[in-house]
Amino acid sequence: MNPDIPARAAVLAGLGGWVPDRVVTNDELAARLDTSDHWIRTRTGIGSRRVAAPEDATSDLAVRAGAAALEHSGDPGVDTVLLATVTPDHPCPATAPDVAGRLGLTGAAAFDIGAVCAGFVYALATAAGLIAAGAADRVLVIGADTYSRIIGPDDRGNLAIFGDGAGAVVLRAGEPGEPGALTAFDLGSDGSGRDLITVPAGGSRHPATAAVAGADGHFTMRGREVYRHAVTHLTRSARTSLDAAGVAPAAVDRFVPHQANLRILASVADELGVPPDRLVSNLHEIGNTGAASVPLALADAAAHGELAAGETVLLTAFGGGLAWGSCLLRWPELPPSPRPYLRRSTP
């Protein structure tokens, strides 16, 4: 690197979230499926989830969350839009350019990132690289998914876990070490686990023709095996980021993992040695929202005053692929958050 060129870092400048109005409770699922509120809560920690309206696609959720993040940042302009999603509006083209255009950002670089539930952290790392290289100055990073579109109508397990939503952050170019600067990224994958979380049909391997319509077009997950991999890789990735930054787990003020299920979150916090009261989660209210889960948890916590300037915040996520990623930041002083996107209820 040219020593005459100052180093640049991606710095958090704003955040926002959006979830659909429709609430699907555990009791509603139990009324038509072989399950119960008790069964779902004890296995996942989830009490309800949000489901997008029939007329809403992933781009619609992403636009709402992106607009909230841009407003919170105080500057509506960005030069790059990254959308992490496993449920794009279409297989082709990418959804990000449409989102950018609808936000008034025509001309901005825009592309999708597909790393399933790890997608948002992958998108953060991509944005940080673009900013560090001088290829971007302000980046809107969105995680958005509509799992209700790809889960089978009788899939008791996955219907209980997943919900729809979108979360977003704005990153600006800044200096390494300043509050809000993203650092200590760790990314990884293991393709031998590609069949653990998948939608079998719809790609070039297994085209979604009429002959393979139906179950092969729905999302599948081998829960017990995913649980084991999730705990292992989330813990290992988070620890790698902490070690790279020279931060002890006990020094983590707020731990924000992908909102997979409560058992996984508690196990990872315990394995790391992060006190349970420092875990940030809104899983009970909205379920697992895929690539949206980390930014939604951040936006919710910020809106309710649960993230203070100067706190060390650890992010980590795991998803299909298999793929995982982690990073750290020191929470910056941000403008007051707008009205929370989520009105909390009592667990």
Structure in words:
The chain has about 350 residues and is an alpha/beta fold. The protein has two domains: about 170 residues, Thiolase/Chalcone synthase (Peroxisomal Thiolase, Chain A, domain 1, 3-Layer(aba) Sandwich); about 150 residues, 3-Layer(aba) Sandwich (Peroxisomal Thiolase, Chain A, domain 1). It is built from ten helices and 13 strands. The chain has a five-stranded mixed beta sheet with strand order 1-7-6-4-5, with helices on both faces. Strands 8-13-12-11 form a four-stranded mixed beta sheet, sandwiched between helices. Strand 12 and strand 13 form a beta hairpin. Helix 3 packs across helix 4 and helix 7 runs parallel beside helix 8. About 50% of the residues are buried.
Q: What order do the helices and strands come in, and which of them pair?
A:
Elements: E1 9-18, E2 22-25, H1 26-30, H2 37-44, E3 48-51, H3 58-73, E4 80-84, H4 96-102, E5 109-113, H5 119-132, E6 138-146, H6 156-161, E7 164-174, E8 183-189, E9 197-198, E10 220-221, H7 223-245, E11 254-257, H8 262-272, H9 283-286, H10 293-303, E12 312-319, E13 323-330
Parallel strand pairs: 4-5, 4-6, 11-12
Antiparallel strand pairs: 1-7, 2-3, 6-7, 8-13, 9-10, 12-13
Helix pairs in contact: 3-4, 7-8
EC number: 2.3.1.180
Protein name: Beta-ketoacyl-[acyl-carrier-protein] synthase III
GO cellular component, one term: cytoplasm
